[in-house]
Specification:
The protein is α/β, with parallel strands linked by helices. The protein has 9 helices and 24 strands.
Length: 431
C-alpha cells in the first residue's frame, strides 16, 4: 500500500526513514525545515491537517498575546506593517499557511500514530492506522496539550446544562441562551470571559491562581522590555524555579483591539461576578473555595513585580522612559460567596478553562518521569535518538511559541546530523 504526502512524495508501508516527525504543527514543520536544509530524508505524520490546533481550536475573536515581531518561525519572520500589533485568528492562519508552503514538508496527513516502540539494536517502529513505518530517529512534535481537563464533578451537573471545554469555544452565539459560568482565569479563561461579557452575556467567573502582567508599561509593550532584559533567552536551567516553571500557568493579558491589560477587578465593576476556586457541585449548588481575594492579590503582586523589574532595568541603564505609577486596586470583594445555586443563577452553560494534560501513552520508551513527562535536556532524551520539541519551556520561554521554536528545532536537527555522522563512521570502520 502506498500513500502520497502533501508535497507529492510517495511512501510505502514498512518504509524506513532516517527520521520520522510526529506532528505537523509549528514544532514539527520547523524541524522539517532544518532537516530539509541538511538534506536529511524524513517523514512527518499528522493526525489531522497541518497546523490543526490553530485552524480548529481557537475562538473567533482570538488574537496573539505576544506582538507580531515575535513571530519568528524559521525562514518566516513576520514581515507585515504592524510589528507591534497582534494578529487576529485569520491573520495567524494566513501566516501559518505561508509557512507550510515555504517548508513544503513531506506530511502524511489524517494519519493517527497508535504506537511508537524503541526496537533493538536501535531505531523505532511507528505504528499508524495506515500501517507501520520505521525510523532511525524520531522527533515528537505533538505538543503537550492532548487531553482537555474536565473534573469528575462535572458528571453531577444536570444534563440540561451545556458543558464545553475552551478548545471547543468559538463565540457567544454558539452557547444556549442564558448565563455562563466560566471556570478558570488563566489566559483562555480570562479572554473568553471577556468575550462573553462583551457579547452581552451575564458571566460568573471562578478564578484560580493564574498570574497577570501589564500589556504596556512606561511607554512600551512589556514584551519589548522583557526581550531587552534577555528574559526570553533564559534557559530553564537558569530559571529560579528550574523545571518547575513548566507547570506555571501563563500570565493573562490580551492582544485584542490593539492590546490591553486584563483586570478581573474591572470585570467585577462592569457586572461580572467573581468567585474563588470552584471546588464541587452538590445539591444543585456550585461550591467555591473562598480565596478570591487571595487570587486577585497574587495576580496583582506578580503584575507589579514584573513592572518593578522593568523599573530597575530602566534605572540601571539610564533609559529615558515616562514615569508610570504602580497598579493600585480600586475594587475588593465585600464578601466571598461560597455557593451559587444553579437554578437561581440562570446558568445554562459551564465553560471549562482549566487546561490540558499530556498523554504520551502511545510512546513506548523508558524516558518518562513519575508524572508522565518526558525526561530531556533541551529536547534530547536519554535515548539520544528520540527528541521532543514544542513543549512549554523545553529550553526557554519561547520554546512552545513562535518566538523560540526555530532555535530549538535547529539545535535538535544538529544533534540528529551528529548521530547520522557517527553511525556512518561506525559503518565505514566495520566494513
Amino acid at each position: 500500500m502506498s500513500y502520497t504526502t502533501t508535497n507529492g512524495t510517495t511512501v510505502q508501508k514498512n518504509d524506513h526513514f532516517p527520521v520520522i516527525i510526529i506532528g505537523a504543527g509549528q514544532a514539527g514543520l520547523s524541524s522539517s525545515y532544518y532537516l530539509k536544509q541538511a538534506s536529511v530524508e524524513h517523514l512527518v505524520i499528522e493526525k489531522h491537517q497541518m497546523m490543526n490546533a490553530w485552524k480548529t481550536k481557537r475562538w473567533d475573536s482570538f488574537s496573539l498575546v505576544t506582538p507580531n515581531w515575535q513571530c519568528q518561525l524559521p525562514g518566516h519572520h513576520y514581515e507585515g506593517d504592524d510589528p507591534h500589533g497582534f494578529m487576529v485568528k485569520d491573520e495567524i492562519i494566513g501566516y501559518l499557511k505561508e509557512f507550510e508552503k515555504k517548508v513544503n514538508a513531506p506530511v502524511l496527513t489524517n494519519t493517527s500514530v497508535t504506537k511508537v516502540t524503541a526496537i533493538e539494536p536501535n531505531g523505532y517502529q511507528v505504528d499508524t492506522d495506515k500501517g507501520t513505518f520505521f525510523a532511525s530517529q524520531v522527533v515528537v512534535g505533538a505538543g503537550g496539550y492532548h487531553e482537555p481537563i474536565i473534573p469528575r464533578m462535572a458528571e453531577r451537573i444536570p444534563s440540561s446544562v451545556y458543558q464545553i471545554h475552551s478548545e471547543e469555544y468559538k463565540n457567544a452565539a454558539q452557547l444556549p441562551k442564558g448565563n455562563v459560568l466560566v471556570v478558570g482565569s488563566g489566559q483562555s479563561g480570562a479572554q473568553i470571559a471577556e468575550d462573553l461579557h462583551l457579547a452581552g452575556r451575564k458571566v460568573f467567573l471562578a478564578t484560580g491562581d493564574a498570574p497577570r502582567c501589564a500589556r504596556f508599561y512606561r511607554g512600551r509593550d512589556v514584551v519589548d522590555w522583557l526581550a531587552d532584559m534577555k528574559y526570553y533567552d533564559m534557559p530553564v536551567s537558569q530559571h529560579p524555579l528550574r523545571e518547575g516553571v513548566r507547570d506555571n500557568t501563563n500570565h493573562y493579558v490580551t492582544g485584542r483591539d490593539g492590546g490591553r491589560d486584563i483586570d478581573l477587578r474591572k470585570f467585577a465593576q462592569a457586572g461580572m461576578e467573581l468567585f474563588g476556586l470552584m471546588d464541587d457541585f452538590e445539591d444543585n449548588q456550585f461550591k467555591f473555595i473562598p480565596n478570591l481575594s487571595d487570587n486577585l492579590k497574587r495576580a496583582d503582586d506578580v503584575y507589579n513585580n514584573i513592572n518593578q523589574r522593568i523599573d530597575k532595568y530602566i534605572e540601571t541603564n539610564n533609559i529615558d522612559a515616562p514615569e508610570q505609577a504602580h497598579y493600585m486596586s480600586d475594587w475588593e470583594p465585600n464578601a466571598e460567596r461560597e455557593t451559587l445555586d444553579l437554578t437561581d443563577s440562570g446558568i445554562t452553560t459551564v465553560l471549562w478553562c482549566i487546561g490540558f494534560r499530556p498523554n504520551f501513552s502511545w510512546l513506548d520508551a523508558p524516558i518518562f518521569n513519575g508524572n508522565g513527562y518526558p525526561q530531556h535536556e533541551r529536547g534530547v532524551t536519554p535515548l539520544n535518538d528520540l527528541f521532543f520539541i514544542g513543549l512549554p519551556w523545553l529550553h526557554t520561554w519561547g520554546s512552545g511559541r513562535f518566538s523560540g521554536i526555530a532555535k530549538d528545532a535547529e539545535y535538535i536537527v544538529k544533534h540528529i546530523e551528529n548521530n547520522i555522522e557517527t553511525a556512518n563512521a561506525k559503518a565505514l570502520k566495520s566494513a
